[in-house]
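Case study 2.
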Amino acid sequence: METPKHPWSRINHIFNPLIKEEDITTIFETGLKSVRKTNGIIQDIQDVIDQKIDRLGLTGQKLLTLPKEVREGELGSAIKSDSAWQKAYQELLAHLAPNLDAGEVASHSEHILRPDWNSPQFGLVGYEFDKENNHLDLRGKVSHAYLSFLSSVRDENGNQVYPDLKLDSMSVVGILVTKDNYLISGLRAGHNFADTIMNIPAGSVEPHSGQNPLYESIDAEFIEELALSRDEWKTTVNSGLVAMTEDHASEQKRTYAVFRAETIMSKKDLTLNEIIKRWKESAEDKGEHRRLEFYPNNPKYVLEKIKHNGFDYANAQLPLSNTSPENHGTILPQCAINMLAHFAQQSFPEGARNAEEYLEGRYKLIE
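Prediction:
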């Protein structure tokens, strides 16, 4: 495939000092009533999913560990052929994407590859940063995983088929710094970008209570993927929201809210070995990764890794998420930019300029 134009990913904002929970105001353009209505539709969808899982004898199995032909094939087909699912899906589209023709879009359910991924999401509309007061105003809409599938649909010319969604997908990632000064990442399992290295934890921003989706989402991801609660990593002034980054090398542009989580001052012995043990024994979603990857918390070391073990577009395949053998074990661009943001926040701007040049302009590190 053709190598994308530089930069592959970029830092949009560095927060220095970093942003604490009380420094964020979240505004839902559709109002909090939309959260409640969406949750009601989600429950209708979930009833169908649970019914199909039970009928296929998959109860109790982790969906992420199912073979692709089962999850996207047998289970996915059973869900999408159900009239109750079709009705709820069309109602979801009419509510969350009123600019689209819900009936027309719903008739092409083949775009929803994994209908069992029934998750509310926060669709980013935009954000404004008041540097003087170190305050972040976040604006968004209630969204859903199905809209993420639709936003990535492209025609034969690479154009977005459903441009009227008018929102960007958004994720949170945690840059975990252990007590003995290592950075933690993970080798992905599942189907999308399998066997590549991505930040852990990471996941879509969800509305949750509607008060502070960024912090509530990173809290949930740390608990689910590493079995770490916030009181185990909020103990230093260096823990919090450090940056907003953007990945636009893959098919779907995505904004990342990058959190640094230090356990250096933790009362517990949260060293590298303890984190690995916690992940193996207690993490609810440990199946999302085959193993944990770790690096010394040293910018020179990490820069070398990114430069010499980065994702190779020349040997990629389409869709990019179907990882080619040549890319097994490589660092995804979205993982790289988030680790780089962690370092740039601590040595910005001169250190970032040197890193940008060293990485041949593949990553835009200067705002």
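The chain is about 35% helix and 25% strand.
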